[in-house]
Amino acid sequence: MEVLFKVIRQTENSSPVVQIYRLEAEPGNTILDCLNQIKWEQDGTLAYRKNCRNTICGSCAIRINGRSALACKENLKSEIERRENIPEPGSNASSIPEITIAPLGNMPVIKDLVVDMSSFWDNLEAIAPYVSTSGRQVPEREFLQTPQERSLLDQTGNCIMCGACYSECNAREVNSDFVGPHALAKAYRMVADSRDGLNENRLENYNYDTKCDSLLSESR
Ligand code: FES
Known about the structure:
Number of domains: 2
Distance between the termini: 54 Å
Bound molecules: FE2/S2 (inorganic) cluster
Radius of gyration: 21 Å
Structural class: alpha+beta
Helix content: 25-40%
Strand order of the largest sheet: 2-1-5-3-4
CATH class of the largest domain: Alpha Beta
Number of helices: 10
CATH superfamily of the largest domain: Beta-grasp domain
CATH topology of the largest domain: Ubiquitin-like (UB roll)
Order of helices and strands: EEHEEHEEEHHHHHHHH
Number of strands: 7
């Protein structure tokens, strides 16, 4: 099938421009497959991140048709069907399907689809995302948890830190002091961890300030 990729391209301190690529692809191709095809066959200057190609590493998060998602997870067929359900003014149903690709939001663009994630990682660091054993007897072997204790970590433990939630976060958009949903999820994960010895300090510091310097130094 033929498809048009409208890619929002930008370099640091420049205005974004839309570049259109026409490509021949299979409905089951992922968006990342298509970006690779563009880069390898049409335009080697297109910049984007990728690594595992298997929804594990989180590197390939971008905005696809207006929402933040993993390029290696979404495929052409579902994207086109999704877009057809949201008709745009003046759009022609019989025209070649279009996919719009843009960089993640709430982070400055370095080049094309590559954003500077420094604030994302700094805010994660601010909540001291390490299980601390300070103030406890360290066992000779491993820390044991019951299945029930471990199950409390399942949901937030599945977060792969791709930055999609941060990109979509309206609170972050209007408040640069807000650490972001990824950091809050990780903070919960730390407080819920039965092996952590800093629960009270954590809650106090989370309540007091997003920049938990004292907690960071204690956990090291
Ligand atoms: S390339 Fe690793 S999550 Fe997409």
